[in-house]
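(Fold this chain)
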Amino acid sequence: MTGQPMLSENAGLALLLVAWLVYFAVHSVLASLTVKTWVAAHRPGLMPLYRLAFNTLATLGLLPILWLLYRHPGPLLWAWSGIWAWLGNGLALAAVAGFFHTLRDYDTGEFLGVRQWRDGTRTVADQESFHLSPAHRFVRHPWYFFSLVILWTRDMSAAMLLTALVITAYLVVGSRLEEKKLIAYHGERYRRYMRKVAGLVPLPWKTISKAQAIALVSGKE
């Protein structure tokens, strides 16, 4: 009898891991240029809805995972307290604020897929031209960085730690896959940008000034 709860916890964590792996595998496949190019070539009428459908499926796919995370949290491994709790929550709030602050630098309609649907866009490439927001002067993937800060400042149950590790690994791999597409879209300009700015975590010695950002976007650097 004493082993049954542990078996249940292990089964819950295993199921959560499988759910995350399946979610990210499907997400990566649907986001790939290979699949989007195939759809554009063989089902061009679906392309205006592709990004919108992709984001809808990505959101709905998280619901059962969040339920598993709630239903099978596993044992509490650590909880921040005192000054560490204040620091962790402060960093998380700063990351949330940073996320919303950077929203103004993105074409939200293009990101969600609403503009492609409205305009009947059938091309595979992103519609936005190469540009660098203020946050992109300090890190190439600011939203990924904010997500990492939020993840790793939370109290950690076994399920939450598993989730944080899986998401972190996916952001590392996913950022590289995303940058292959960005190189395909923007070529040498994006390669030069990669050499100058850190990827997921800001580094003091790998940032650029506003003037350097403008030069990179214009192709003058």
